[in-house]
Structure of RNHCP domain-containing protein:
Amino acid sequence: MTDTATEQSPRADAAHEHGWLTESSHQTSEGRVLYVRCTRCGVRRVDLQPHPLLPPQSLSRDCG
Ligand SMILES: [Zn+2]
């Protein structure tokens, strides 16, 4: 239990680690945009990966 107490997740059991599956992605001038979905609770997120060697950053928190 650390962070997600006030997070609005549809029906995620409180403390599972989201298992993000990339549904689609496309290249933009800002970097690579990744549309990911948690395979466990179905929550969606949009990530931006500015560089192939850098980890993606979340653009939106659990919108869906
Ligand atoms: Zn999840």
Residues 17-60 form one domain. Residues 12, 16, 18, 38, 40-41, 43 surround zinc ion (CB under 6 Å). The two ends are 22 Å apart (CA to CA).
